[in-house]
Design a protein that fits this description.
It is built from eight helices and 26 strands. By secondary structure, the chain is mainly β. The chain has a single domain, classed as Porin, CATH 2.40.160.10.
Length: about 525
């Protein structure tokens, strides 16, 4: 299906970003215009990401917010200058179509001073997008990569057989990796209240930097997404095809399939409040029931009557606009709970839930383009896991929600500032979690059966941080200069310090990177 979709998208008459295409989900890029979407009185459903470009343009001047330093100098308006600074590499349009094609790249060199190792990323790719008429749009992109990562990412890739969120690995020049990734979708809006997207990519539910419901951390996947909007309500049905976690000896073998059915109902209340209700069901390919295609939210009791071996996660998302451009937000995720056991004692193994709380502010203290975000995430042991490991809330050996899996507490702080085309951002992560061991499951590894709980499947006394107590401190500073906003092409320098500590010792990375890239994805290495 994936290869067919990519071929179809490239062969189909193509277009640039039209009303039905998405703005690629990149946190740093979204900060540039998200403040306008969060003003009181603006009814924009910000918890459903990526955003559709036409809807953003209906609210604000997206182009002017994406590029502050437009210049009318002679070179900027020359044929070469326009291609470099203002336009796609190739674009053409007519009365009822638009087509663009642009190269994609991530070229960087770095050094990890903690072990005196050199680092590099060599990514080349292409994107093509466009529209035909007012109702049909499409997008496709492909990335081919060779990279040498810091040791903690390399260890992750070797264990999972995948670079975080990006592609299955092959060995490259000893300690490096070769991997690739493709995205693509067709977007059709027959009426303004309804949009359907068929593609291969990622989705994100929430207003935070992390999502405890559905994030864009894991590798891309095939999906069918139906979005219905009426009055102050947006309702999303998402049907997906995932690959289960197994260890393979043959690098060319395929992972067994599993599928996901997600529903998200979001409503605006009293102009300043948005409340979303979420449900996700993971089910095996050999356990197909028509009920899984039910478009109504919270049909879990119906599925339970089938005695099906599915894994259900439900939750809620809340955002409150407390000031003109300041919002508080939060999430609650519930994987399982036994209300009777709550009365019997604390820490029952199946009391599986977590929550998020955060605040995000734009143009802080009246300083234009200064943004701040603070966020706290907490997830109890064994959340997202299942008694059958193939049914874990995961895809391609990676969590569908938080990169840390479960059994953790995490605090995140982000502050950034944009002056014309120059941007600076400082991000700080602090997490404490209980790691599993080779013999005991303390609840962090979501790929292990929760029936293997360290104290037994009916045990009490389970708490966040049980296991090998691990402290993670991650700090990163990035300075970048925007060259072309159409593909978010920028040059950057970046410094990262990561320290992971346990009672057995600590591991430190001190990383410096410099390079240039088209930043159209979220790449999460802060775990």
């Amino acid at each position: 299906m994936k290869k067919f979709l990519i071929l179809f998208l490239f062969c189909f008459p193509v277009i640039g970003f039209a009303q039905q295409t998405n703005i690629p989900h990149n946190h740093a890029n979204y900060y540039g215009f998200e403040g306008e979407l969060n003003k009181p009185g603006v009814d924009f459903h910000t918890s459903i990401r990526p955003f559709m470009e036409g809807e953003v343009r209906a609210v604000t001047n997206y182009d002017s917010l994406s590029r502050f330093g437009y210049t009318n100098k002679k070179f900027a308006n020359s044929m070469v200058g326009k291609k470099l600074l203002k336009q796609y590499f190739f674009q053409t349009k007519g009365e009822d179509y638009f087509l663009e094609l642009s190269p994609l790249f991530d070229l960087q060199y770095g050094k990890d001073f903690s072990n005196d190792s050199s680092l590099s990323v060599n990514t080349r790719g292409v994107q093509v997008s466009g529209s035909i008429g007012k109702k049909l749009s499409f997008y496709s992109s492909f990335y081919e990569n060779q990279a040498k990562f810091p040791d903690y990412i390399s260890d992750y890739a070797k264990e999972k057989q995948i670079v975080p969120g990006q592609g299955r690995i092959k060995a490259f020049k000893g300690s490096g990796f070769d991997f690739s990734q493709a995205f693509g979708y067709i977007s059709y809006t027959p009426v303004k209240q309804f949009n359907v997207q068929l593609g291969h990519g990622k989705n994100f539910i929430g207003d935070g930097y992390r999502s405890l419901l559905l994030s864009d951390f894991a590798y891309s996947y095939p999906f069918l997404k139906l979005t219905t909007t009426f009055w102050k309500i947006r309702y999303v049905n998402l049907f997906t095809a995932f690959q289960s976690n197994v260890t393979l000896n043959d690098n060319l073998a395929s992972y067994p399939r599993k599928y996901g059915s997600f529903q998200y109902f979001d409503i605006t209340i009293l102009k300043r409040i948005q409340l979303g209700l979420f449900e996700g069901i993971i089910w095996q390919a050999n356990d197909i029931h028509l009920n899984y295609l039910n478009p109504l939210i919270f049909y879990r009791p119906i599925a339970s009557s089938l005695n099906a071996t599915n894994n259900a996660v439900i939750g809620a998302n809340l955002k409150i606009k407390i000031l003109k451009q300041t919002q508080v937000y939060g999430q609650f995720v519930l994987d399982d709970i036994d209300f009777k056991k709550i009365k019997e004692g604390k820490g029952y193994f199946s009391q599986k839930y977590g929550y998020q709380i955060g605040v995000k502010s734009f143009n802080v203290f009246g300083v234009k383009n200064l943004y701040v975000q603070a966020e706290y995430n907490q997830v109890r042991p064994y959340v997202y896991s299942h008694n059958k490991p193939l049914q874990s809330y995961s895809h391609y050996n990676e969590p569908l929600a938080h990169p840390l899996g479960a059994n953790f507490r995490e605090a995140i702080g982000i502050i950034g500032y944009r002056w014309k085309d120059l941007s600076a951002e400082l991000k700080f992560n602090y997490a404490v979690y209980g790691a599993d061991t080779a013999m005991y499951s303390y609840g962090k590894n979501i790929f292990t059966s929760d029936y293997n709980a360290v104290n037994g499947i009916y045990s009490f006394g389970n708490s966040i941080g049980q296991g090998v107590k691990t402290t993670l401190i991650y700090a990163q500073f990035r300075l970048s200069y925007l060259i072309n906003p159409k593909t978010n092409w920028n040059i950057f320098i970046e410094y990262t310090n990561r320290k992971q500590s346990t009672e057995y010792g600590e591991h430190t990375n001190s990383i410096f990177n410099i390079g240039m890239r088209t930043s159209l994805r979220n790449l999460y290495y802060d775990f």
